[in-house]
């Protein structure tokens, strides 16, 4: 009986994970990019392409068609720390979810 519950919850968790991932397929996630020693978040639809400006603390963002969407300023030290902390927490949660899924789907042949 226990095995059926484990299989059910493993299937449910897999379904939820696939549903969550399906929302991320078409959207590029912003990434941190180093330009001349300053860090910028680029890669979203409004900043697919970028160019340096005369001011090293700004980049000029363009969409996929090359239309200018505006300037972005470099991240401050505090913003950079928060960004890296957020990324580390996302990675940790992903690893925890994977381990939980492995525990749920593990079948011990000596259990019976």
Automatic annotation (TrEMBL):
This is Lipoprotein.
